[in-house]
Amino acid sequence: MTTDRGNDAGPVDPEKKQEANAIQETRISQWLHWVQRALPVVFLVFVAILAARELHALDLHAVRAVLQTLTLPQVLLIQLVALAGVLIMCLYDWHAARTFEIRLPLHVLVRNAWIANAFNNLVGLSGLAGSGIRLLLLGRAKVETRRATAFSALIMASVPAGLSVLSWPSLLTGGPVISQLPVSAWMAWLALGAFALYVPLYIVTLYKGMFARLLHGLTAQPATSLAAMIAISTLDWLFASTVAWIALQMSGAAIPWPQFLSAFVLASTLGIL
Asked: What does the alpha-carbon distance between residue 103 and residue 105 come to, in Å, rounded to a whole number?
């Protein structure tokens, strides 16, 4: 004769079941809390390791020797142009904050942008480092997670837009002598072509609202907003190349500006890919 084990166990006490569910939810909440606290530390350690590797590869003695050959006005000029370049990068944060109605004081936005851009320029990672640091800083400022994520995602998506704009002249004219580069010619053309297509893809994705399906909170952007972001990005890349060009000029490597810009754009696309 068989027995029904379910019946032998008796009815489940609703209060005990509710208590068990509450305990489980508390444990999950505690686990998520520790994960949220640990992730920023892990991320910053990762960024610090990458930064240390980049600095270790730098020959400080050679840098010092070059700096000693420069006059004080030359050093100040390089620093001022570089300062202007970093300040231009702050325009990303200012415009994104207006777009998503993140009401932070201007000095806080500039400070956050400066920190994020400094780490991003040092370790690279195609904008991931800067976006991650922006998320941490906005979270510290008690900005809503969804809004902070949309803010960081828009900036990360917008940074390559200027490089895409600058890729078109090189793609149409052939840029520097690609056959003389230390990489395969097909790879160079692929890099230029991929980035040239980025701006149309960027416009379609954001203007048509397709990105909103991937990230809740990042709504379709008006044409004027996207045009402003593309202009900021283009200005950003132009200033970055200008700083490098001036530094080369001051160190005695005289290269015509159009030729250097074309090489800078190709090197940047290959580096990111």
From this structure: 7
Say if 144 falls within a structural domain. yes
Which residues span the domain enclosing 232?
32-49+74-272
CA nearest to 229, candidates 76, 93, 114: 93
Task: Report CA-CA distances (Å) from 11 to 3, 8, 16, 58, 264.
Answer: 16, 9, 11, 71, 74
Distances (CA, A) of 57 to 53, 118, 129, 226: 6, 18, 19, 38
Among 93, 147, 148, which Cα is nearest to 120's?
93
Q: What are the pLDDT digits (tens) for 38-88?
A: 766 776 777 677 777 777 777 778 878 877 888 888 888 888 988 888 888
Task: Please report where in the chains the tokens 């991650």 appear, as a residue.
Answer: 132
264 part of a folded domain: yes
Element (H, E) at 255: none
**How distant, in Å, are the alpha carbons of 95, 148, 185 from that of 39?**
28, 16, 41
**pTM score of the predicted model:** 0.73
Single-letter code of the amino acid located at 229: M
